[in-house]
Amino acid sequence: MGGRTTWLLPALLLLFHPGSAAITGPKAVSGLERDSLTVQCQYGPGWELYVKWWCRGADWDSCKFVVKTTGSEQEVKKDRVSIKDNQKNRSFTVTMEKLRLNDADTYWCGIERAGTDLGVQVEVTVDPVTTHCHYGPGWENYVKWWCRDADQNNCIILVQATGSKQGENTNRVYINQSKRMLTMTMSDEKNGL
Ligand SMILES: *[C@@H]1O[C@H](CO)[C@@H](O)[C@H](O)[C@H]1NC(C)=O
Ligand SMILES: *[C@@H]1O[C@H](CO)[C@@H](O)[C@H](O)[C@H]1NC(C)=O
User: What span is annotated as the signal peptide, if there is one (predicted)?
Assistant: First the structure.
C-alpha cells in the first residue's frame, strides 16, 4: 500500500502542474511583421471538451486572455487572432495575423479547468522586414535614399541618409560603410509601406 502512495503522489504532481506533459507547445515561434504565424499546442487524452485559451503576458497569474475556444472545434476569432481546437488529434492552433512588432511577447497556451488551469509558455517574436542594397567604392559619402514608386523621377523619398558617418543609423536606414551596404527596415505603416 505504502509503495502505491509514493508512486501516485509524484505522478499526480507531474500531471497537474502548469506546464506539465498534459499540454505541450513550441517554446518559441517567430513571424515577419505584417505576415502571420501559427502556434500549435497539443494536449493529453481526456481534455478534448475543455475550453482552450491563448493568454498574453509573462506572468501566469496576470496574463490577459486573447482568445478562448467554446469547448468545441468551432474556430473563435477576435481581431487579428484566432483559435481552433482539433479534438481528433488533440491539438489546438492559434493564428496571429497582420503581425505588428509590438505583438512580440510571452504568451501561454492553456486549458481551462476547475482549480489552476493548465498552461505552457510560448515566446513570440516578430521580425521587421528588411532589404539590403550595396554600393560600389567611392560612393561612401553620397546621400543614399529609399524611395517609393515605380517611376524613379517621381517617387516619394521615405528616408535618406548622408552616409558620412561610420555605421550611421537613422530610424529605418542603417548604413554600414565598411560593407558598403544599406539596410532598410520597412516597418513604418504610417508611410504606407
Ligand atoms: C491536427 O489536425 C489539424 C486539422 O486537420 C491539422 O491542421 C494539424 O496539423 C493536426 N495536428 C497534429 C499535431 O497532428
Ligand atoms: C559593418 O560591417 C563589418 C564588416 O562585415 C562588420 O564587421 C561590422 O560589425 C558591421 N558594423 C556594424 C555596426 O554592424
Answer: 1-21
The three-state (H, E, C) secondary structure of the chain, written as one string: CHHHHHHHHHHHHHHHCCCCCCEECCCEEEEECCCCEEEEEEECCCCCCCCEEEEECCCCCCCEEEEECCCCCCCEEECCEEEEEECCCCEEEEEECCCCHHHCEEEEEEECCCCCCEEEEEEEEEECCEEEEECCCCCCCCCEEEEECCCCCCCEEEEEECCCCCCCECCCEEEECCCCEEEEECCCHHHCC
103 in the same domain as 26? yes
Domain closes at, from 77, 97, 127: 127
Question: Using a 6 Å cutoff on CB, does residue 42 contact ligand 1?
Answer: yes
Pocket flag, ligand 2, residue 42 (CB < 6 Å): no
Q: Within this chain, do residues 108 and 26 fall inside the same structural domain, yes or no?
A: yes
Same domain (yes/no): 136, 185:
yes
168, 176, 182, best to mutate for ligand 2 pocket (most atoms within 8 Å of CB): 176
Distance 91 CA to ligand 1 centre (A): 7
Q: Which ligand is nearest the CA of 179, by number?
A: 2
- Model's pTM, two decimal places? 0.73
Residues 80 and 112 in one domain: yes
